[in-house]
Amino acid sequence: MTFTAYHYQLDQNMATVMLLRACSRGPKSLLLQVQPLAKNANLEVISKQFTATPALATIEYFRARRGPFTPEEKRGKGHMMMASTHWKVERIVAIAMTGIMPACLFVQGSTMDHLLSTFVYLHGFWGIDGVLKDYLVKFVPWISKVWYVLAIVGFAGLVNFNYNDVGITKAIQMLWSL
Amino acid sequence: MALLIRSVARSSCLLKQTSMLVPRRSTMATTAYEEMRNFWARNRKLNRPLSPFLTVYKPHLAMMTSLTHRVTGVAMQVAITGASITLLCLPGDFRQNLEYVRQLSLGPAIIKAFKYVLAFPVVYHFLNGIRHMAWDAGYGFSLKTLYKSGYFVMALTAVVTTYFVFGIKANAL
Fold this sequence. Notes:
The complex is a heterodimer.
Chain A: H1 3-25, H2 28-31, H3 57-61, H4 71-75, H5 83-106, H6 110-135, H7 143-164, H8 168-176
Chain B: H1 2-21, H2 32-46, H3 61-89, H4 94-103, H5 108-136, H6 143-167
Helix pairs in contact in B: 3-5, 5-6
């Protein structure tokens, strides 16, 4: 069997397998039409092998880019510190929170307000940032920036609340007195 | 004659071994990135369907505690940011706004349920967070310990949350 003939048969086998899979997947497969790659397609350039029907062009747009990512892409640019250092800082904040949060049950006041809001907010900010990086950044690359803006406004709101209003610990106490 | 054949065989064998010792940089991927690129290229060529998704797994304790940890964390941070921005936008200070809520005169059941909704994520995330930090420090990975700590955290969360809702009577300030 020549090389080309072998590949031709392989393609036929794959087509059969794909057809069977499409049947087993049911009506969903009618929406996402699978088109095998062209013979001369450059695999380094093409990152999407599925072509959606026009109605599903939106889904196609938000499909994740599934690698490969260069080390530069993975690392990103303009970081303050190494990821491992950042991890350690995150743990230090989390460990501090295990002390601060129970302490707020007993002590309320301006210092506690600022301590609690800063630590909790920092922890949550990094948490959401990580969740976005895990699930959404590969679909919607600009989502982190939206979160940064919202987070800054939110933190400004908290600081304003602590300075010009009752403060977060007193506020929780008042809420609990309902 | 036999000796000649054997020596030829030996030498060719030796030749093979030396060829194995020669680094084959030119044909092999040199960097991790190139290897990954080859991996992805091969997998695209194979045209495989998506690998088994979440729905094929039977839920188990470790999975559910981890998922709840993440969901409560995200919910709390979204709530904090949302509440903060809302308070920034609302006219009047917190005392006035709380007075409006008080004037709604909600039933005690609704208020208790509301307190449960507020207290549960905080308590659960706090306690399970300690569990996570123990893992980060390298403790509690054995399956038996994992299940024990998981059930312990669930039970303690129920107890502490109930205490917060029914046990603490904060004074109105």
